[in-house]
Amino acid sequence: MAAAASCVVDFGVERVTLAEIARRAGVSRPTVYRRWPDTRSVLAALLTGHITTALSDVPARGKTREALVQRVVAVADRLRDDDLVMAVLRSELALVYIAQRLGSSQQMLIDALAADLRAAQHGGGVRAGDPRQLAAMVLLITQSTIQSGQIVRPILNDDALAAELAYSLNGYLS
C-alpha cells in the first residue's frame, strides 16, 4: 500500500501502474497480481484503507445528533487534508464512485453512519426515517463538501466550511 501511495503522490492516479507499484514495493508483478487484479483494485483498497483509518481515528463521542455531526465533520476534515484521498477524488477514477456505483468505502461509511443514526434516533436527537437512507444522504452531503471545498475556499476557509457542514447536517437530521 505504501508503494501504491507513493506512486499516486509522484505520478497522479491516472499514471499509476502495477509494474511501478511492484518495483517500489520490491516484489514481482505476479506477486502484486496474486492479490489485486488491476491498478484500479489497488487504488480502491488504498482509498478504503485511508477512509477506514480516518473513521477509526475519530471516535464517536456519544449517541446524540450533535456528537454524530461532530464526528462526520471531523472525518471530513481529515479526508480533505489527506493528499492521497484528494488526489483520488480529483481523478477520473472518482467519477465511478460519484456517479456510477457505491464503493466499498462508501458502503462502510453508510453502515457506520446508519448505526450511529439509529442510536441517535433512539435518544430522540435525530428525526424519524430509515437510518440507511439518512446515512446515504449524509454521505452525499459530506462527500460533496469534501470534493468541492477547495473551489469555495476564497469564500469559506476550512473552519467556515466545517461550521457550515455541521449546520447543514444538524438541520437535515433535526
TrEMBL record:
The answer on whether this UniProt entry bears the keyword GTP-binding reads no
Do you know which PROSITE patterns this protein is assigned to? HTH_TETR_1, HTH_TETR_2
State whether keyword Hydrolase applies. Answer: no
**Which ranges carry the HTH tetR-type domain?**
1-54
Under Pfam families, the record lists: TetR_N
Q: Which domain of life is it from?
A: Bacteria
**Could you tell me which SUPFAM superfamilies the record lists for this protein?**
Homeodomain-like, Tetracyclin repressor-like, C-terminal domain
Among the GO molecular function terms of this UniProt record, one is: transcription cis-regulatory region binding
Q: Which residues form the signal peptide?
A: none
DNA-binding segment(s): 17-36
Q: Which UniProt keywords apply?
A: DNA-binding, Transcription, Transcription regulation
**Protein name listed in UniProt:** Putative HTH-type transcriptional regulator
Q: Which organism encodes this protein?
A: Mycobacterium cookii
